[in-house]
Amino acid sequence: MNKSLKINFIQLLLVTVPFILTAQEMGFEEYNPTSTLVVPVHEIKRAKYPFIDVHSHQRSMEKEDLKRLVSDMDALNEGIMINLSGGSGERLEKSTVNIKETYPSRFAVFANVDFDGVGNSGWAEKAVAQLEEDVKNGAKGLKVFKSLGLRNMDSDGNRLAVDDPRLDPIWAKCGELGIPVLIHSADPKSFWDKMDADNERWLELKTHPRRKRSDTDPAPWQQIIDEQHRMFKKHPNTKFINAHMGWYANNLELLGNLLDEIPNMNVGIAAVIAELGRQPKNAREFFIKYQDRILFGKDSWRPEEFPTYFRVLETDDEYFPYYKKYHAFWAMYGLNLPDKVLRKVYYQNALNLIPGLDKSLFPKN
After folding, report:
1. What angle do CA 293, 112, 326 make, to 5 degrees?
2. Can you give the three-state secondary structure of the chain, one letter per residue?
3. Parallel, antiparallel or unpaired: strands 331-332 and 320-321
4. What does the pLDDT look like over 205-227, one tens digit per residue?
5. 336 contacts: CB under 8 Å, gap ≥ 6
6. Closest C-alpha to 55, from 353, 262, 358
7. Which of 188, 136, 184 has its CA nearest to residue 162?
8. Which pLDDT tens digit goes with each residue over 282-341?
9. Predicted confidence (pLDDT) at residue 3 exceeds the cutoff of 70
């Protein structure tokens, strides 16, 4: 090999070898191959039936914001959006006034309770009075955030349990007022498990380290979940919507047993479509059996992500991607739900649970 060719060969190695080594050493975070599988594809940008999103969060409900939201909602075939971040008092009242003056049929808000001060004299009476006022001003339900059971402390600095008896007047009042309680307790159990090769939420915990929990931060997962279920049973006259399918979308047999055991508990599918989409046969049977107890919801407001929900619920497509690898690195499959079940999940069950929604926006049959 002459000197010129040798120099060119060395230069080529200097360029290509680092690339080869980089490809070989690529971490799981970067590995995201395009599937070569060729199967029928049914992209669905718009839901088959108008739907009610019972699990949305909007920081602002100014009139201009509502106008922008309606445009996106119409494109998705979203009939009504339930804003769970309604707040309380003046903030909630302002939102309901804006709704009445712009799109009175398209939006509803749930009130939120401030759990600060539990244990102080008169806290329950004040909280109940505020809830009554919020419902009078247009709130259609109560949303309880996961901070209850995780971060909320009582006046003595102790963790406030979900089933703390000092909160009973709140749940009882919701039953008396005929409004549902949509409650999020804990997080996926994997957040409490060891962060090792066996944890299928490893990537999520690596990219979102603040989500990691332990038995002492703040309590064992099962303890928090059991607190929630005891509270449901203690208030049979109150209707509950268990957010994120109560974190049992990965164990539908157990969730079904709980639904049988707790007749006033319903479940929302927000943020757990990835669990349902990886077990299409099992999930389809579950939806058919419990078709009167399941409600549609999305959680984060990103219109471009809704089609994955539609595709899982409506089609029998195979092996299509989820939109967040860190959340679910596996593929989705369609449940191909019957129309009767779709209508219940999309809007009928919500209309039956949430008072005062405009039924004229939805098909009669």
Report:
1. 65
2. CCHHHHHHHHHHHHHHHHHHHHHHCCCCCCCCCCCCCCCCCCCCCCCCCCEEEEEECCCCCCHHHHHHHHHHHHHHCEEEEEECCCCCHHHHHHHHHHHHHHCCCCEEECEECCCCCECECCHHHHHHHHHHHHHHCCCCCEEECCHHHHCCECCCCCECCCCCHHHHHHHHHHHHHCCCEEECCCCCHHHCCCCCCCCCCHHHHHHCHHHCCECCECCCHHHHHHHHHHHHHHCCCCCEEEHHHHHCCCCHHHHHHHHHHCCCEEEECCCCHHHHHCCHHHHHHHHHHCCCCEECCCECCCHHHHHHHHHHHHCCCCCEECCCCCCCCCEECCCCCCHHHHHHHHHHHHHHHCCCCCHHHCCCC
3. antiparallel
4. 999 999 999 999 999 999 999 99
5. 280, 284, 314, 315, 316
6. 353
7. 184
8. 999 999 999 999 999 999 999 999 999 999 999 999 999 999 989 898 999 999 999 999
9. no
Give the separation between CA 68 and CA 303, rounded to whole angstroms.
12
pLDDT tens digits along 105-154? 999 999 999 999 999 999 999 999 999 999 999 999 999 999 999 999 99
**What is each CA distance from 78 to 45, 148, 289, 296, 347, in whole angstroms?**
11, 30, 25, 11, 10
Q: What angle do CA 295, 296, 302 make, to 5 degrees?
A: 155
The Cα–Cα gap between 312 and 298 comes to 13
Burial of 186 (0-12, 13-18, 19+ CB in 10 A): buried
Measured CA to CA in angstroms, residue 66 lies from 124, 139, 261, 305 at distances of 34, 17, 40, 20
CA–CA distance from 182 to each of 54, 56, 63 (Å)?
9, 11, 25
Spatial CA neighbour of 167 closest among 189, 183, 187: 183
Q: And the tokens for 177?
A: 């007022």
